[in-house]
Recover the amino acids of this structure.
């Protein structure tokens, strides 16, 4: 595909301001008249909104850029969204007019090896631990981790991949808007070493429908979607459905059968023939990677976690995979008293499973290795939904 002209680029940028992503009526107009004519028509109806030139100046002032189909950095697999739309220009799942991007990485390069890791905002300690471990291990193998920059599972996945500087945040608002506000520091870190991507221009705040439309973009940019924790009404299941529509591998991580936050994942695995169960990064790579990349054998191999007592495992599952956490934070996640947790951490460090610095504790590569003992219930599996992590 040839790069678009300067006039069409301006029109595409303007359309992202003047209409909601995937608007059926606008897509019909673009299909019939072209981007420039459609933009002129809408601009005449909404002269009160910022014009495309000012939006382009704003993104450039932030060190970002606006990408269009045909640009070297444009991911060609986004064309799958057009092919997947139900009735051509009438479908809401069409290719974006353009993308607003911040960050030093090239979007086309990053998404050549990218996996979306998504899940519940109200994550349990189990879900946060698993999402972080999978994301960190995938990033260590050279994969990029894409997610929606929400709290809970999304944040755990982004943070775990940041050490390798391989994460892409796909937003439902402008790339200069921090939503939720508590993720402002996280988004700044991602914009410095990874990528922050949106279909809407700077300054645009989120609206509920935009999250669902955004999810199609998250699925399309990735080679596969991994759902870690999701209730039966979770927005992560919407991303999963887009993945299935696009023909992307759909992967689910099982959780405790008593947890309502794993019920949606279990439903996916039960009801969708294309959904596959995964528990480790090598299994994900086997499903979404190159032909011939098989997961290393699991059974018959020992793990440093095997044989640990319940208290040791409870604390170990509360320790982050990549970021450092204070003893108080780990104790809160494990629902144990800080003095007891401190003593357990000393023992875990002696076993080479955690490491300490001035910033607290985190898992070592040995500590991130999963247990091969099926008798070990993951921390947070007791009770109705495990232990939800406040503010995760």
């Amino acid at each position: 595909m040839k790069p678009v002209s300067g006039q069409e680029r301006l029109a595409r940028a303007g359309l992202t301001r003047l209409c909601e992503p995937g608007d059926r009526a606008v897509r019909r107009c673009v299909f019939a008249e072209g981007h420039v004519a459609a933009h002129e028509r809408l601009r005449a109806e909404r002269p009160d909104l910022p014009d495309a030139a000012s939006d382009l100046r704003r993104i450039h002032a932030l060190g970002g850029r606006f990408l269009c189909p045909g640009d070297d950095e444009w991911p060609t697999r986004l064309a799958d969204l057009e092919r997947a739309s139900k009735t051509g220009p009438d479908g809401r799942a069409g290719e974006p007019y353009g993308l607003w991007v911040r960050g030093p990485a090239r979007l086309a390069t990053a998404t050549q090896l990218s996996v979306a890791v998504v899940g519940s905002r109200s994550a349990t300690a189990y879900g946060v631990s698993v999402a972080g471990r999978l994301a960190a291990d995938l990033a260590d193998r050279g994969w990029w981790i894409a997610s929606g920059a929400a709290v809970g599972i999304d944040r755990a996945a982004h943070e775990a991949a940041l050490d390798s500087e391989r994460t892409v945040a796909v937003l439902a608002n402008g790339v200069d808007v921090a939503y939720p506000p508590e993720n402002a520091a996280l988004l700044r870190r991602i914009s410095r070493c990874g990528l922050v991507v949106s279909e809407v221009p700077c300054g645009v705040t989120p609206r509920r429908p935009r999250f669902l439309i955004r999810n199609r973009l998250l699925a399309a940019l990735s080679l596969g979607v991994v759902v870690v924790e999701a209730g039966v009404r979770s927005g992560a299941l919407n991303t999963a459905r887009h993945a299935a529509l696009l023909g992307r591998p759909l992967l689910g991580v099982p959780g405790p059968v008593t947890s309502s936050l794993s019920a949606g994942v279990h439903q996916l695995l039960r009801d969708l023939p294309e959904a596959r169960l995964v528990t480790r990064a090598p299994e994900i790579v086997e499903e979404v990677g190159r032909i011939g990349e098989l997961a290393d054998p699991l059974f018959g191999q020992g793990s440093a976690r095997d044989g640990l007592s319940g208290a040791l495992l409870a604390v170990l599952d509360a320790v982050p995979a990549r970021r450092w956490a204070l003893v108080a934070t780990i104790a809160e996640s494990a629902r144990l008293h800080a003095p007891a947790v401190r003593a357990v951490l000393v023992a875990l460090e002696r076993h080479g499973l955690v490491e300490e610095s001035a910033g607290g504790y985190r898992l070592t590569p040995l500590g991130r290795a999963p247990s091969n003992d099926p008798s070990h219930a993951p921390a947070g599996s007791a009770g109705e939904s495990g232990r939800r992590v406040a503010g995760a």
Remarks:
- The chain has a mean pLDDT of 87.
- The CA atoms of residues 309 and 376 lie 9 Å apart.
- The domain at 310-368 is CATH 1.10.10.10 (Arc Repressor Mutant, subunit A).
- The radius of gyration is 22 Å.
